[in-house]
Every structure is written in C-alpha cells, then in structure tokens.
Amino acid sequence: MNERSVRVRVPATSANLGPGFDALGIACTIYNEMTLTLTPEPGLNIVARGEGAAYIPTDARNIVWKSIQYLLQRADCMDEFRGAKIRMSNRIPLSRGLGSSATAIVAGLTAANAIVGNPFSRHDLLQLATDIEGHPDNVAPAIYGGFTVNTVTDNYVECFSFLPRILIHFVVMVPDFYLSTKSARQVLPSEVPMKDAIFNISHASMLTAALARGSERHLENAFEDALHQNYRAPLIPGMFDVFAAAKKAGAYGAVLSGAGPCLIAFVPEHRNCTEEVAAAMRKAFRAHDVDARPLHLHLDTKGARILRRKDSLVRG
Ligand code: HSE
After folding, report:
1. Closest residue CA from atom 5 of ligand 1
2. To which protein family does this belong (predicted)?
3. Alpha carbon of 114 to ligand 1 centroid (Å)
C-alpha cells in the first residue's frame, strides 16, 4: 500500500446564535486548510502555520490526528495506514469561539474518509465528530455549511441545514484574549428555571422561522438568550454594552459566538452599515479596556470539502 494525500478546506463556525445553546450554528467564510498524507509506515509529522500555530500540539495529542485515528479505527484501516504527515494552514482564530477545534476534528475526519474511499456519509461524519466534540452545534455547520439546526436524541445526532432567505453580514469582534470552551462551560449552572427554558425555546424557534422565511421584523428580539450569556458575561468585559452598541448602529442583534470570547453581530446587507457596527462594537469594547479587531464574514454555503490542487487558497 502506498501513501495517499488529500487537501481539505473547512469553514469557521459560530454556535448558539444567542438562544440556540448547543443546538444552532452557522458556517462562516473564513477557512482552515489541511493537507493529509497517510503512510503505511508509522510516524507522525505535523506542521501548523498561521493562526495560533505556536499553541497547536504537533504530537499524538493533536486533535486532527486523534480524529483521523478515530475514523481509521471505525473503517478498519488502522493496519493499512500507521502514520501521517499533516500540514495545517490556519486562518481561523484559535480558542475565540469560532469553532477552531470543530474545524480540526472535521478536517481530520473528512480527509481520512476521502483517503480510505469515503465509506462514511456526511451524516456518519457528523455522528463521529459529535462523539469527539461532545455537542453538534459547531461540527454540524463545519460539515454541511449554511444555518444548521442540530438535535441529539439518545446520542443519535440529526442536522437540518438551510440557507436563510435574508442576506446577513456577520461582524465578528475578536478580542485580544483567549477563552477555553471548558472554562466557559464551567460557569454554567447544571439546572435552569423553567421560565428560562421556555424563553430560549421560543426565541430559538422564532430565529429559525424568521431566517427560513425571510421575515426581518421577527428578528428584532430573536437573538435574545437566557440560558448561557448572563453566566458568561463576567468572562467577557463589556459584553452587553457591545451588544447594545451593535444594535444601535444597525444590527438585528449581537450575541456571544459559541463559548466566546468573540462577539458576533448580524447586520442586514441592505442597511449598508457594517463599518459603523464594527466601529461601535470596537469602541464599546475599548471602554472596558478590551482591544478587539473586526472580521467581516458571510455565510459559507458548502461546508467542508476536498480541494483539487487549483482550488487551494493557501499552500501548506
Ligand atoms: N455550544 C457550545 C458552548 C459551543 O456554548 O459551550 C462551544 O463549543
């Protein structure tokens, strides 16, 4: 058996979208790329470049490599491929709430699946990725693209992906500090009042319906949340002030992106106010001594895909 290579591109994601904690997500137009070569000989050679490269383990602890092994085991190909060369070109900010760990998992699974002849469907990959990540709201949009609604029933994951009927520009503010998902989950209570659960079910449903049908007026309050953002606010100085500034400058709403610390504002394309929203959010952060830089993104509609050589944006 010879060595085999593929190159894969995976989009960033923003999970929760306010009320859809652990359930809703979107794919965004900023990408990590990876070239994977599986070899019959044992040995691991990982090189990471770009965002957060210095913090990415290049040994057996690497999450891409763990995901590759997870897939090879299930495909019964562990004996065929014992080693790997992994070249990562990263543009997605690390540990900031833009799904960089989900991207790594999805890149590993998608690339390994392609090399062994695609025995697993996209839905199978979603199940495997959720097993690894623990919740589906980042891995699902990374795999499918679009706006995704995700459920887990007795460990069985389902994803409904669609393209909203409203053109929305995402202004993502990236603060100059990291926050691990683990610490942002530790501050959450294990139980919540029934009224907060009802609040989120109704708002997440409204958000999904408004985007699916293209009803702008129903987005007015649809990004509100009672399940996680209040508890996480102390970890992100000025969070609610930044949300208010974004809305005042013309956004439908703004929320914590995933577990943070990035904040994401949803801005109607037709209002032509994306620069104003970014400036207002930055100023509000600054008032709390936080430096943040904006990313201007749109919805990725394709999700993870294998690249042909000519498609590649960056060289690994
Ligand atoms: N739903 C997750 C959270 C996303 O908010 O903790 C981060 O992985």
Report:
1. 259
2. Belongs to the GHMP kinase family. Homoserine kinase subfamily.
3. 28
